[in-house]
Write a structure and sequence with these properties.
Blueprint: H1 2-7, H2 12-21, H3 52-65, E1 79-82, H4 96-103, H5 105-111, H6 121-128, H7 140-151, E2 154-155, H8 156-169, H9 185-196, E3 200-208, H10 209-213, H11 216-220, E4 227-238, E5 244-254, H12 260-268, E6 275-278, H13 284-291, E7 298-303, H14 329-338, E8 341-344, H15 345-348
Parallel strand pairs: 1-3, 1-6, 3-4, 6-7, 7-8
Antiparallel strand pairs: 2-5, 4-5
Helix pairs in contact: 4-7
Length: about 350
């Protein structure tokens, strides 16, 4: 089963974390659609407060792109990599990929009505109807079965269509917004600022590569070929009418988390990034890899320390401990020791979401 879960684009540590926080959720999970986020007006980093973090970005871009600068970097070497969950969009209280799996169960039951009386699918149906107590019945093997049933044994085209439909209908339980609106406006501005200065931006995520590629271009302006994630094996096959297609098999190809991130970057990009951004222990090796390169580089970590406007968790700096997007004190200390930039969501960001006008 471990290889099945890995092939879904989810590493087991991430999956265990997601299951652990399910009881903290509240309210029905079934959702509806809304429009996509739009960019904010103003200067390139208008949603950032003036301070060391904003200045580090500006100074880095100037140093690497200004002709005559001793740290000038040729355009083809301007590679910037970004984690997604917790770095570009909300990851709490539960990863969006888990919500996708849970909310995909009704469609499975519709296709196979007998599943309505079979655990764990019957348990998920109870949860979706608002029975929070039913969450306690959902074991790890149960969740693995649900994920396997909703992520594999289908064509790539079918999976992409299902994810696209879900994203158009799903809403986050707290903000009642589509997940695609829960991207961080300051980070969207960084992506655009970098691209305007000749950088190529990549998403490097422990989440599913196929999952993220369905929306990356529309949501972040990052084309699917610049998305790297945990990937499963796909098999080239032929339909009954002779038309070729790719089939998603429950086998692991790349576990793109922790050491897998720099390994995957080498495999799929072939260049060391000169900028990398993350928010958790799973991003540490990617930031180390970027920092170890010759010449100018920038490694950044987003610290979730704003419980009012988003969430507060660490346990770095005395923040509440979490199993989703863990940012340890050891990681914080390493960042400070090695000159990485730690972004305080509370202090460095004027606004967090495009739809939220409130400022810090």
């Amino acid at each position: 089963m471990k290889t099945i879960i890995s092939s879904l684009g989810i590493n087991r540590r991430t999956l265990l974390s997601a299951l652990a926080v399910l009881p903290a959720m509240s309210g029905p999970l079934l959702t509806a659609s809304a429009q996509a986020q739009t960019a904010a007006p103003g200067d390139a980093l208008a949603s950032w407060n003036d301070g060391p973090a904003k200045q580090a970005i500006i100074d880095f871009v100037k140093a690497t792109t200004e002709q005559g600068s001793p740290n000038f970097v040729a355009p083809e070497e301007r590679i910037a990599t970004f984690d997604q969950d917790g770095t570009l969009w909300v990851e709490h209280p539960v990863y969006s990929f888990v919500m996708y799996a849970l909310e995909g169960v009704p469609a499975l039951v519709k296709a196979k009505p007998a599943l309505a009386k079979v655990a764990p699918f019957s348990t998920v149906l109870e949860i979706l109807k608002g029975d929070r107590a039913a969450i306690a019945k959902l074991t790890m093997p149960d969740l693995e079965k649900v994920l396997a049933a909703t992520y594999t044994d289908r064509s790539v085209d079918q999976f992409n269509a299902e994810v696209t439909k879900w994203l158009a209908e799903a809403r986050d339980a707290r903000w009642k917004k589509p997940y695609t609106e829960l991207t961080y406006l300051p980070m969207q501005e960084v992506l655009k600022y970098l691209r305007a200065n000749g950088f190529k931006t990549y998403i490097v995520t422990g989440g599913g590569q196929d999952f993220v590629r369905t929306y990356s271009e529309k949501v972040y302006g990052i084309p699917p070929e610049q998305v790297m994630g945990t990937a499963g094996v796909v098999k080239y096959s032929y339909a009954k009418d002779g038309k070729p297609f790719l089939f998603k098999e429950p086998k692991l190809l790349l576990n793109d988390d922790f050491t897998g991130k720099p390994e995957g970057i080498h495999l799929m990009i072939g260049r060391r990034p000169i900028m990398a951004a993350g928010n958790s222990t799973g991003d540490r090796q990617m930031l180390e890899y970027a920092r170890a390169g010759a010449g100018a580089n920038l490694s950044m970590l987003v610290l979730h320390d704003d419980a009012k406007r988003e969430y507060a968790y660490g346990p770095a700096q005395g923040l509440p401990a979490t199993k989703v997007g863990t940012f340890t004190q050891a990681l914080y200390d390493e960042a400070k020791k090695n000159g990485w930039t730690v972004i305080s969501m509370k202090n460095d960001w004027k606004r967090i979401f495009a739809f939220d006008e409130s400022a810090s």
